[in-house]
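Team,

Forwarding the record for the chain on the shared tracking sheet. I've put the sequence and predicted structure together so nobody has to dig through attachments.
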Amino acid sequence: MTECVREATGFSGYPEYQGGTVDFYQGYKHLVVIAMQFLRKQGLQGPARVFGALSWEPIASINAGFDIWNGKVAHFDKYGMNPTVLTDSEKLQAPTLLLHGRDGSQGMFTALGAYFKKNQMGPLFSVNLADGELTEEDFDVVDQKIKEISALYGEEVKINIIGYSRGAELALYMALPKDNWWIEEGGKCYLSPATRWRTEIGKVIRIGSMTLLSEWKMLSEEMKESIYEIRGKDDIHMPEPSYALNQYEVDGVGHVGLVSSSDVFDKLKVILDNSST
């Protein structure tokens, strides 16, 4: 039976003080998230996101803005991403497909692309997704990219998906057979019980947005073992806890900084080093 498991993206709360002593750092965080909450309650979702990002992570946010702008191109080949031909040695490595966050672009993964190239972590692919809430329009974009990746390998290959923020929410659905889910206009997601991923999918890695309990209960125990989640302890935009069997937390990293953090990249390397085609 299909159930509505995810509402349109909304504010999910804000961090509580830890311990009895409030220092300047925690106090400032509290003020920022209260202001974000006020803006969201007024229906100003976009301004709330921008205010929170610039107030809490100004440098990371400015850099992300440039990366997003530079990534709004048809073919993004920074640091060898989105190759059109693979060497024999590259075909022995599992490919990774990146799904960016809301109102972003594939340029958000520029720093990750540099890390992949430096550490020779295998072919890296990306796409530009629609702006705004989750939409079924993105299925065709991702599905076409999966077909292109498979064609490069010339045989069936397991593709690891890394989704960031809204892209992490989308990653779950993109990894499932299409008859298991549908997305209503406006962003509501409907899911029926699933027992397997698409045959082309390896690991599903979520950064900055965790699987909801309502989604989690629709997945088989075996599928849950393939989900990995990474969250920043200073994420004030999407502070939900992870229920994943494979979960990682990163100190001193906020929501925007998750896609430029070397600590996050190191955890991704650990996860992906055990992947094969």
